[in-house]
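User: Second chain of the day. Same drill as before.
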Amino acid sequence: MEYDPDFARSFMERTLTLATEYEGPLDATLLINCLLGLLVVPKEALLIEKIPSTAFASIADWGISPTSIMSFGKCDQGHEHQPNLKQLVRRLRNAVAHFKIDPVHRAGRVTAFSFRDRNGFYAVIPLEELKEFVAFLSKYLHENA
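Assistant: Same format as last time:
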């Protein structure tokens, strides 16, 4: 297997394929691996620079219900800020990069993952929302990177 000369674009395209086509017993693990690849592998400046600062309510357009975000947390300086899509991606990146994630189980199956960061961010995102977010993010980055 060989990557295209533009590794980042090729990586995001393959991640989109994995996230949307895989159906099997390891789907929850695959989603976390996809998030790790999409949120951490690209340079943080590249990732955050490409994500729009749209209103918090618009995260539903990216697959995550605003009700899945329990606490948006505070800025490093301790000031409240207006939650937006770019901040959500940054918070998820921090949670994934520092492995502040935990599976949420129901009836012996993983149904969601919780994400936390050191600034008080806390989200519980169901697998279906996470799958939609990973697909949308990989497609968006592929088209805009």
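The longest strand covers residues 109-116.

User: Great, on to the next one.
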